[in-house]
């Protein structure tokens, strides 16, 4: 196979840009629509938790993706994004675990891909093409 295809650093960069960039869109949407934070706060209150914890979503969907994209503490950024996805799953998506879409795909494909990609980043790290390689 082509030797150019054996490039771990490039693969890690693509992973960081993909998962970080796509989750960042969700975080920016929450920044532009503060009502979404209130909605998440209401969900948390429903579980007996304080509503101010809803601001943690900004850590998992804004700060952590930026950390991953630039490659600064990318493992921690991946852990924060994975944790954010677990909380989103527990708060909103538990009823969809065994559901399929109209096309036959898993109802939680997007959430699963975000979670597993962020988890892969935890174990792989940033690679050489980063502000601070780990």
Automatic annotation (TrEMBL):
Listed transmembrane segments: 13-32, 52-72, 79-100, 112-131
Main localisation: membrane
Coiled coil location: none
Topology class, membrane: Multi-pass membrane protein
GO cellular component terms attached to this protein's record: plasma membrane
UniProt keyword Flavoprotein, yes or no: no
One Pfam entry name: DoxX
Entry's localization field: Cell membrane
InterPro entries documented for this protein: DoxX (IPR032808), DoxX-like_oxidoreductase (IPR051907)
Keywords: Cell membrane, Membrane, Transmembrane, Transmembrane helix
Family named by the database record: Belongs to the DoxX family.
Name assigned to this protein: Putative oxidoreductase
């Amino acid at each position: 196979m082509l030797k150019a295809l054996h490039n771990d650093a490039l693969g890690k960069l693509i992973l960081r840009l993909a998962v970080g960039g796509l989750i960042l869109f969700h975080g920016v949407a929450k920044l532009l629509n503060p009502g979404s934070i209130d909605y998440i706060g209401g969900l948390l209150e429903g579980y007996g938790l304080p509503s101010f914890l809803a601001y943690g979503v900004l850590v998992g969907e804004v700060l952590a993706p930026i950390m991953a994209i630039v490659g600064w503490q990318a493992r921690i950024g991946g852990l924060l994004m994975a944790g954010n996805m677990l909380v989103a799953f527990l708060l909103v998506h538990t009823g969809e675990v065994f559901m399929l879409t109209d096309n036959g795909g898993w109802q939680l494909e997007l959430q699963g891909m975000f979670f597993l990609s962020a988890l892969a980043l935890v174990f792989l790290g940033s690679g050489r093409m980063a502000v601070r390689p780990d």
